[in-house]
Specification:
About 5% of the residues have low confidence. The chain starts with a strand and ends with a helix. By secondary structure, the chain is of the alpha/beta class. About 35% of the residues lie in helices and about 25% in strands. Bound molecules: adenosine-5'-triphosphate. The site of adenosine-5'-triphosphate has 12 residues, from strand 2 and helix 1. It comes from Sporosarcina soli. InterPro entries: AAA+_ATPase, ABC_AA/LPS_Transport, ABC_transporter-like_ATP-bd, ABC_transporter-like_CS, BCA_ABC_TP_C, P-loop_NTPase. This is ABC transporter ATP-binding protein. Keywords: ATP-binding, Nucleotide-binding, Transport.
Length: about 250
């Protein structure tokens, strides 16, 4: 088991964002976390990545409790995420954005003088090579020197994923990666998630694009008003009465 979420609750003042939510993810799965706006999906990501502590419950990652850990310790253990809104360094190049994801000091522009010793030069080369490997995976290698803000919207979203991949995650949390994408960009995203899965990385996906979710996920967890209302294969979820009423809508 990669991740075990055990009876997680979170309340913000008077708002109960999550109530006793439990689910688990096995190695290599792509799991969808779905539900209407305000259901608690992003809050669950914030619990897993320790942006906020849960009010109660526990999360176990690869057999280790995440209780009390700081966000950077969670990243180090192998959990990385993207955010609903694009958070790139828009004035840095595509490659530099990925290098930042690798928690490395930049080697170009104003940062060049930081790398002085031979050892540092070797480290720099490794980080550059790693960044380019990742850019190749996400299909942005030819844009490595492009300033991030000059990429198309779909490319910027892929760069966000590249940056998360730079920390070598075992579990990747994607928060609405298809939001605002056109059909071609969504198809490219499908191919990219498939590729990430083939690399052995487990994926937890928040997404409102149901055709994409149904195509890519082997299992779905459905939240509504902070509670888990269903869990199962895409087929079983699509025909689940409670999910249809709460989220998918009646045809
Ligand atoms: P969406 O699909 O719109 O992104 P979501 O399922 O991700 O929705 P959350 O963002 O997790 O939902 O929000 C769940 C509830 O918790 C909402 O009522 C939200 O207002 C509340 N909430 C989330 N974060 C905070 C916070 N930091 N402080 C106060 N309330 C919060």
């Amino acid at each position: 088991m990669v991740l075990e979420v055990k009876k997680i609750s979170k309340n913000f003042g008077g708002i109960q964002a999550l109530t006793d939510v439990s689910f688990s993810i096995e190695q290599g799965e792509v799991i969808g976390l779905i539900g209407p706006n305000g259901a608690g999906k992003t809050t669950m990501f914030n619990m897993i990545t320790a942006m906020f502590p849960p009010s109660s419950g526990e999360i176990i990652f690869m057999g280790k409790s995440l209780s009390g850990l700081k966000p950077h310790e969670i990243t180090k253990l192998g959990i990385c995420r993207t955010f609903q809104n694009i958070r790139l360094f828009s004035d840095l190049t595509v490659r530099e954005n990925v290098m930042v994801g690798n928690h490395c000091r930049l080697t170009t522009g104003v940062w060049q003088s930081v790398f002085r010793t031979k050892h540092q030069k070797q480290e720099e080369k490794k980080v550059l090579e790693k960044a380019d490997e990742i850019l190749e995976i996400v299909g942005l290698l030819e844009h490595s020197q492009t300033i991030a803000k000059n990429l198309s919207y779909g490319q910027q979203r892929r760069l966000e994923i590249a940056r998360a991949l730079a920390s070598d995650p075992k579990l990747l949390l994607l928060d609405e990666p298809a939001a605002g994408m056109n059909e071609k960009e969504t198809n490219d995203l499908f191919d990219l998630i498939t590729k990430i899965k083939s690399l052995g990385i487990t994926v937890l996906l928040i997404e409102h694009d149901m055709p994409l979710v149904m195509r890519i996920c082997s299992r779905l967890v459905v939240l509504n008003f902070g509670e888990k209302i269903a869990e199962g294969t895409p087929d079983s979820i699509q025909t689940n009465k409670e999910v249809i009423e709460a989220y998918l809508g009646v045809e």
